[in-house]
Amino acid sequence: MFAAHDLALLAPTTRERRPESGEPGQASAAPRLHPVAEPCTLHSANGRVRDGMVRHAGPAGAVVAGVGGLGLGQEVVLVLPRRGGLRMRARVAGLGVMGLLLDLLPADCGPDWRRALLGMTEPGWGTA
């Protein structure tokens, strides 16, 4: 199981000073996951379709809530209907009370995912 404070522990950390306080702190060597609320659908290899909600998203991963019945290491296809039906292959990397931790496959973390991530994390991004 993992909790909100565990999300920062997904990547190796380094020690650095926080500029605002001058005190030592932890900084992530990899980008953090951002809180979002994006409906999604997960398609598994056996043909089952599950609806859920992306609760956190980052450049190479996501946490999906409301989805069960999947095991560690299982490959799924993450579909974001509000982002033009964007489809990305992912692997279940963790199970916990917050949902499934998905590692997106590197081949699918391209410009389309970055645009979708910006749209989820920056209100009004991409609107005229």
Which helices and strands, and how do they pair?
Layout: E1 13-17, E2 24-28, E3 34-44, E4 49-58, E5 61-65, E6 75-80, E7 86-96, E8 99-104, H1 111-121
Antiparallel strand pairs: 1-2, 3-4, 3-6, 4-5, 5-8, 6-7, 7-8
What features would you describe in this structure?
The chain is mainly beta and 128 residues long. The chain has a domain at 33-121: Thrombin, subunit H (Beta Barrel). 9% of the residues lie in helices and 46% in strands. It has one helix and eight strands, in the order E-E-E-E-E-E-E-E-H. It has one helix at residues 111-121, and strands at 13-17, 24-28, 34-44, 49-58, 61-65, 75-80, 86-96, 99-104. The strands form two sheets. Strands 3-4-5-8-7-6 form a six-stranded antiparallel beta barrel. It has a two-stranded antiparallel ribbon with strand order 1-2. The N and C termini lie far apart (41 Å). This is PilZ domain-containing protein.
